[in-house]
Task: structure prediction
Amino acid sequence: MPVTWEECRRRLEKAALILNREEPVAVQGPISVGIDLGTADVVLMVLDAAGEPVAAFLEWAEVVRDGVVVDYPGAIDIVRDLTAKASRRIGREITRAATSFPPGTDPKLSTNILEAAWLEVSGVLDEPSCVARLLELDKAAVVDIGGGTTGTAVVQGGKVVFSADEPTGGRHVSLVLAGHYDISFDEAEKLKRTPGNREILSLVRPTIQRVGDIVARHIRGHDVERIILSGGTCCLAGVADVLAAELGLPVTLPSQPLLLTPLAIAALAGDGI
Ligand SMILES: Nc1ncnc2c1ncn2[C@@H]1O[C@H](COP(=O)(O)OP(=O)(O)OP(=O)(O)O)[C@@H](O)[C@H]1O
Ligand SMILES: [Mg+2]
Result:
């Protein structure tokens, strides 16, 4: 069942509040679990029967890059670890979860990891399409700008009619900063996340404009009147404005860009796909 933008925002705030919180909570009724195996991080989220987040765990790890698993055993260990943490928090064994993949890549890369971590796969759908499914949308495109890739799903009358992905994301933003300041990639990542540094946006504007070009290509020929953003790279102040100017369309930024795709994947499990 799709939710309104207001309801989605409320759930995102709840997820942010409980992120990486291990203290036990009582959860009644069926649960749905989603696991987002990203380029920059792995996120596991558990929703209760009402779709309310009850557990959310994020671990920064580079186990997947652009739809390719670069550290298979590492990915399995993280999924097992996050599953164990979430199980302890909700006092219930987690045996099933939904997962996702960048459009155009092989879903098996993600589903194999869940299965190796002893989880039954309860649903699998590409990343921006998960977000598109969660929200009530028409003539819109969901754009997920993650660590490694930018994925787009075009929605007409609530249905995804097109999805595609290209390897440009937050990694490329950090590489530009690392090159400019002559610092390591990790230092550039930290710098990028420092709030209120407007110089960063001016330096990485061409990279964000390239993302805009990618999205423009993805939506060409489709009836798109607005853009919904997801993905951690949208945390960078000013990204939405640059994209709105590039695309000439209104752009909606969620309050917790890092958590929208994981929330949508967990909701997918609840829909029994
Ligand atoms: N506050 C912040 N400001 C700027 N960038 C941020 C911030 N927080 C996270 N990021 C960036 O967001 C990216 C991670 O986002 P996300 O979790 O959506 O990606 P992912 O799902 O791991 O990757 P992908 O979807 O490409 O496989 C990283 O590049 C990270 O540096
Ligand atoms: Mg992602």
Remarks:
- Residues 132-257 form a domain with the Nucleotidyltransferase; domain 5 fold (CATH 3.30.420.40).
- Residues 36, 38, 127, 144, 146, 231, 261 surround magnesium ion (ligand 2) (CB under 6 Å).
- The longest strand covers residues 53-60.
- The mean pLDDT is 94.
